[in-house]
Design goal:
With 423 residues, this protein is an alpha/beta fold. The protein has helices at 2-82, 90-113, 119-202, 259-276, 294-303, 341-359, 373-376, 393-399, 402-421, and strands at 217-222, 229-234, 242-246, 280-283, 308-315, 325-329, 363-368, 382-389. The chain is 63% helix and 11% strand. α1 (2-82) runs antiparallel to α2.
Length: 423
């Protein structure tokens, strides 16, 4: 038993010794772990300081990148005044694009590595933020000032624009008033003109010219002229109806002879015949290059107190078979000079008969109409002699000859003789 007890106690003591040794071993391990951890910490501190250096380098690189970007922006800003970067020479454009690429990659790399910055970096970051905030505030202040300046400029421009607009509106209003006033005046003028015309149409017409006894004054009017006058004149004294002042007449369809040339050629022959017979002859024109309206021609006869006013013309028709001579006078109810109808009709008849007799042409008729301004303005007995049709081959060719023109002039003169003989 004693031996067993000793063995047990020995084993217990051994166990206790072993336990004691285990604790010391554990304490050493713990100390070694702490030492390792401390060493690791120091290493980490070194690494951190190295990281700080890297961070600083990265920041400087990023700042350089930002500086590059700003420089690039400035370069582009300068280039914008002359055009876009793409408008620059190829080298400049490429360099600007590359600068942008480098700056962007530097910033991105710096942002990634600076995710765990230390307190110093935080301070620097804070300073940067402050500077950025100050810059932003300064920019905002500038923007506000610019905005205020722009607003003031806009207000001024708006005020100027408004003033201009008001001025324009006033001008337009004034112009509109003037236009309205002008329209009113025109309307009043037209109404007055119509009223005058209407009153003139119903008012007494000028009295016919008193022809001295035994007067043998004949006014010859070679119809038309080389250049027509498209301006208008009243159809008769006080008339509201307007008519072209004078035309150049028709043209021989087969000979090409113009009517104004034919009329003057026959009229000059008539003048010579009448002068030889003792008449005083007044010519409205003796050349083709004149500008005398139909009303003015009648006034020449009126002013010279002609015993008769003979107007020389040639006819035309779409029907080339139509031929013959015709004379024209006013109607019995002419609103301008109806009192001259009897003498004018007699003059027309005498001349028509004599022309037919002298030439052997077809006798058409005495046509009474109030559509001829040269007749309506006349204050003496008047007729228009249509010698023949320039659209008819036979008559056109005949009237182009000097012999037939002489016959025409003689026939007209004979008719005037008959008219005077019957007075």
């Amino acid at each position: 038993m004693k031996k067993i007890y000793v063995i047990i106690m020995t084993m217990i003591m051994a166990a206790l010794l072993l336990a004691s040794c285990g604790k010391k071993s554990d304490s050493g391990a713990l100390n070694e772990t702490d030492t390792t951890m401390s060493s690791s910490d120091s290493v980490n501190v070194g690494e951190n300081s190295g990281a700080d250096g890297k961070d600083k380098n990265l920041k400087e690189s990023a700042e350089e990148g930002l500086d590059n970007e700003n420089k690039t922006d400035e370069a582009l800003g300068m280039s914008d005044e002359a055009g876009s970067a793409s408008d620059l020479p190829d080298g400049d454009g490429k360099e600007n694009k590359e600068s942008f690429g480098e700056a962007d990659s530097d910033i991105e790399q710096g942002d990634a590595e600076n995710a765990g910055i230390n307190d110093d970096d935080k301070t620097q970051s804070t300073d940067k933020k402050k500077n950025a905030d100050n810059t932003k505030n300064s920019d905002k202040s500038k923007d506000k000032d610019s905005a205020k300046s722009a607003d003031k400029s806009k207000d001024k421009d708006g005020a100027k624009s408004a003033d201009k607009s008001k001025g324009t509106d006033k001008t337009k209003s004034s112009e509109g008033d003037n236009k309205e006033a002008s329209k009113t005046e025109d309307q009043n003028g037209q109404e007055a003109s119509v009223a005058e015309s209407n009153s003139a149409d119903t008012a007494p017409m000028p009295e016919p010219v008193v022809i001295p006894a035994g007067s043998r004054v004949v006014c010859i009017d070679p119809g038309h002229q080389s250049k027509q006058n498209k301006d208008t004149e009243p159809l008769g004294p006080g008339s509201s109806e307007m008519k072209k002042k004078v035309s150049s007449g028709t043209t021989g369809r087969f000979t090409g002879v113009t009517e104004y040339e034919l009329n003057l050629a026959v009229s000059l022959k008539l003048r010579d015949i009448l002068t030889a017979r003792g008449y005083t002859v007044i010519m409205t024109r003796e050349t083709n290059d004149v500008n005398i309206s139909n009303a003015e021609r009648a006034q020449i006869a009126n002013e010279n107190s002609a015993a008769c006013f003979v107007r020389i013309h040639a006819n035309g028709s779409e029907n080339e078979n139509k031929s013959g001579a015709m004379t024209i006078c006013m109607t019995k109810n002419n609103p301008f000079n109806a009192s001259l109808y009897d003498d004018s009709y007699k003059l027309s008849s005498c001349i028509l008969d004599s022309v037919v007799a002298a030439t052997g042409c077809v006798k058409e008729k005495v046509w009474a109409t109030d559509t001829m301004s040269g007749i309506n303005w006349s204050l003496v007995p008047v007729t228009i002699v249509e010698m023949g049709y320039m659209t008819n081959k036979a008559e056109d060719e005949l009237m182009a000859t000097d012999d037939y023109r002489e016959k025409l002039a003689t026939g007209i003169a004979d008719g005037i003789d008959s008219y005077f003989a019957g007075r």
